[in-house]
Automatic annotation (TrEMBL):
<dbReference type="GO" id="GO:0006515">
    <property type="term" value="P:protein quality control for misfolded or incompletely synthesized proteins"/>
</dbReference>
<dbReference type="InterPro" id="IPR019734">
    <property type="entry name" value="TPR_rpt"/>
</dbReference>
<feature type="region of interest" description="Disordered">
    <location>
        <begin position="30"/>
        <end position="50"/>
    </location>
</feature>
<feature type="compositionally biased region" description="Low complexity">
    <location>
        <begin position="39"/>
        <end position="50"/>
    </location>
</feature>
<keyword id="KW-0812">Transmembrane</keyword>
<dbReference type="InterPro" id="IPR040201">
    <property type="entry name" value="Mrg3-like"/>
</dbReference>
<protein>
    <recommendedName>
        <fullName>TPR domain protein</fullName>
    </recommendedName>
</protein>
<keyword id="KW-1133">Transmembrane helix</keyword>
<dbReference type="GO" id="GO:0051787">
    <property type="term" value="F:misfolded protein binding"/>
</dbReference>
<dbReference type="InterPro" id="IPR011990">
    <property type="entry name" value="TPR-like_helical_dom_sf"/>
</dbReference>
<feature type="transmembrane region" description="Helical">
    <location>
        <begin position="88"/>
        <end position="109"/>
    </location>
</feature>
<keyword id="KW-0802">TPR repeat</keyword>
<keyword id="KW-0472">Membrane</keyword>
<feature type="repeat" description="TPR">
    <location>
        <begin position="322"/>
        <end position="355"/>
    </location>
</feature>
<dbReference type="GO" id="GO:0031942">
    <property type="term" value="C:i-AAA complex"/>
</dbReference>
Length: 478
């Protein structure tokens, strides 16, 4: 009992406190001793002042962030650990986005620089149909759908008042033929070209006849009437410009007809048709048209053979006329009609020299070699046997000169002007020199030329030509 009562009594006795100096908050120096009374009062003061002081110095302050700062903070929070969490998907996503952007930029560039300019001359409805037609021609070849789209484009062009024989309209017809040829439909392609060239020639001839019939009458009216009305003058000027456009367009259409003839010759000579007579007839038609128009322009004092392509020179230049003559001449060479090939080749060479001046090209080398080939063919016909004295000396000298001239011109040409065509012509010229020497009985000279020709053929990778030269060498050694 006593023990329990004593414990309860002791519980109410206040124990002395251990007063310690708070050194961190003391403003006194280390040499001063802490006094209990003062410490208690200062402690009570701090307890009473602490809440107010904390409220005063820790009051929350708010600042509004801008939209950019919020976006930046959002990106920063979102990017934390993104590489670590997606080590494969994130690089693939970046590469995919960059690739898609590059592809889109390339497609836009091609559209603006290549595709768009092809259609800017057409009205939008016509251009839309042409885009569909070209898609089914170049991308997804479908002759039926492409032909339908081309017909739709022609119909819209006529409704919108486009000139039926303008460059654009004739070009659509030629594009149809190209599409059919690409699809392997050569006969329909030929029919389109033949119909186009017939309509073009008819329009040109009728227009020129009409102009020739109206010319004296128009000159008489112009000399006798003085026009003072501004509206009448404007109308007269407009009609004059229209007549000039028609003349210029007739020249362009006639130029296209020459190209159509040459294309028809190519198609008839192809493996699909194999009609050499038709091919030859169209080559002859192209040459006749070229020479006829050349004479007409010379008689009228019109420009002939200019390399520029402006309004006043819509006709073929001299190089293009020479190409038509060369094609027909080479056809005659294949048929061994050397007497017919020679005039064409010489005329083509004359036109080409006039056009190129002092800067010859490989076309001249080819023509010179072709002339020597024609002369060599004639020598074969007129020489009864190898080494015969009956061989015409004039033809021998002429053949040697033309072949050597081809080699001399080729030696002056350097790449990139000198190309494979030049090397092939040199090969033909060297072979012709060896052939002429063989006809004269000069075996060593013939062997030398043929060995050079064989070496050149091997260097060009022309094994068939090299084998042909080897046959000639084997015959020489018999």
């Amino acid at each position: 009992m006593f023990n329990a009562a004593s414990r309860r009594a002791c519980a109410f006795i206040s124990r002395p406190r251990n007063l310690q100096c708070n050194k961190a908050l003391s403003t006194r120096t280390a040499s001063h001793k802490c006094q209990p009374g003062n410490s208690t009062r200062s402690s009570l003061q701090r307890q009473s002042q602490t809440p107010f002081s904390l409220l005063q110095h820790t009051r929350p302050q708010y600042r509004q962030l801008s939209y950019g700062q919020r976006m930046k903070r959002g990106f920063q929070e979102a990017s934390k650990g993104i590489w670590r969490k997606n080590p494969i998907l994130l690089p693939l996503a970046i590469i995919s986005v960059a690739g898609a952007t590059a592809i889109f930029a390339y497609i836009s560039y091609v559209e603006l620089t290549r595709v768009g300019p092809q259609y800017h001359k057409f009205p939008p409805p016509v251009a839309e149909s042409l885009r569909t037609a070209v898609y089914y021609t170049e991308v997804d070849l479908n002759p039926a759908k492409a032909l339908k789209a081309y017909k739709e484009a022609l119909r819209k062009a006529v409704e919108l008042g486009m000139h039926p024989f303008s460059d654009e309209m004739v070009g659509i017809h030629l594009q149809v033929s190209m599409m059919l040829e690409k699809a392997g439909l050569v006969k329909p392609a030929i029919q389109v070209l033949e119909r186009t060239q017939t309509e073009c020639l008819k329009w040109v001839e009728e227009g020129r006849k009409k102009k020739d019939a109206q010319k004296p009458e128009a000159e008489a009216v112009t000399e006798s009437i003085q026009i003072d009305d501004p509206d009448a003058l404007a109308m007269h000027q407009k009609m004059k410009e229209l007549d000039e456009y028609e003349d210029r367009q007739r020249d362009k259409v006639l130029k296209k007809v020459v190209g159509i003839h040459m294309k028809l010759a190519e198609l008839y000579a192809s493996d699909y048709i194999q009609d050499e007579k038709k091919a030859e007839s169209y080559q002859e038609a192209a040459v006749e048209l070229c020479l006829k128009e050349l004479r007409r322009r010379q008689e009228l004092g019109l420009p002939v053979g200019s390399a520029s392509e402006d309004a006043s020179t819509a006709w073929l230049n001299l190089s293009e006329i020479a190409t038509a003559l060369t094609d027909l001449g080479q056809t005659y060479l294949k048929q061994e009609k050397n007497e017919l090939a020679m005039p064409l080749l010489l005329r083509a060479l004359d036109l080409l020299r006039t056009d190129e001046g002092s800067t010859p090209s490989c076309k001249q080398v080819t023509l010179l070699a072709d002339v020597s080939t024609a002369i060599t063919g004639e020598l074969h016909k007129k020489t009864p046997s190898r080494g015969s004295t009956a061989a015409p000396q004039q033809l021998i000298d002429s053949g040697n000169q033309w072949a050597q001239k081809a080699l001399d011109v080729a030696a002056k040409l350097q790449p990139p002007i000198r190309d494979e065509e030049c090397d092939m012509s040199c090969l033909a010229a060297m072979y012709n020199l060896g052939e002429i020497a063989h006809l004269q009985g000069k075996r060593k000279e013939a062997e030398q030329y043929w060995m050079e020709a064989k070496s050149l053929a091997r260097g060009l990778g022309l094994e068939e030509n090299a084998a042909h030269v080897e046959e000639a060498l084997a015959e020489l050694k018999k």
